[in-house]
Design goal:
This protein is of the alpha/beta class. It has three helices and eight strands; from the N terminus they run αββββαββββα.
């Protein structure tokens, strides 16, 4: 007697249909998984930050001009106090004024803030001209004979109608002990022929060197 149960034909057909549906479902789910993975990868790529180009940075250096020649070096010293300035002149932004509104370039900047550019320029020019025995910074423990205090009022490019120019303004005071010896305001407009970054930087370079040279001539007239 055969004890093995025989499966009806209709049952075999039913099982076969189930198997086919199961395989089709697996195949469909696999396709959906691939599509989901591809879409996720694309989204991840699109959300990834795009590389940002570093802005071009500029530095102004003292030229070789020496205002005071063949003079007897002084035996006195001078200390350059920290330059006072509005907040925007303490950043590395290259600022401009257009329609009476202050702005800053995004693709161009200074390597140093305008305050530091002016301080470095004055120090270098004073040392080149040998007007004083020593030029000291504010961190020096040495008591200097004179102190140069200053305030940077403007260091920007200005758009005024059809005119474009660089404007630099500085107020300076020479102090001995607690006595104000003299003070003076310096200002320069360097007109530009076109709106180009290189021309603007050249204008700042020219204006700052002129300011430093004129300030040294002024100090020379006071010190003597």
């Amino acid at each position: 007697m055969n004890l093995k149960a025989k499966m009806p034909k209709n049952s075999i057909f039913f099982v076969s249909c189930l198997m086919l549906k199961f395989k089709a479902s697996l195949k469909e789910n696999f396709k959906k998984s691939l599509i989901f993975f591809a879409l996720t990868s694309l989204c991840a790529c699109s959300l990834a930050p795009s590389p940002q180009l570093n802005p071009t940075s500029y530095l102004i250096k003292a030229n070789e001009t020496v205002i005071l020649k063949n003079i007897k070096p002084s035996q006195k010293s001078i200390k350059i106090a920290p330059i006072q300035a509005p907040l925007y002149l303490k950043s590395k932004d290259i600022s401009y004024i257009k329609d009476n509104e202050l702005g800053a370039y995004t693709k161009h900047m200074w390597k140093q803030s305008p305050v530091n550019l002016v301080s470095t320029m004055l120090t270098t020019k004073l040392e080149k001209n040998k007007l004083f025995k020593a030029v000291l910074n504010n961190n020096s423990q040495v008591v200097a004979d004179f102190v140069l205090e200053s305030r940077l009022d403007a260091f920007e490019q200005v758009f005024e109608g059809d005119k474009v120019y660089v404007y630099i303004a500085l107020s300076a005071s020479l102090i001995k002990g607690k006595t104000l010896l003299n003070s003076r305001h310096f200002s320069y407009k360097i007109h530009l022929k076109a709106i180009e970054p290189d021309l603007a930087i050249a204008g700042f370079d020219e204006g700052l060197n002129l300011l430093a040279d004129e300030l040294i001539s002024w100090l020379f007239s006071l010190e003597r």
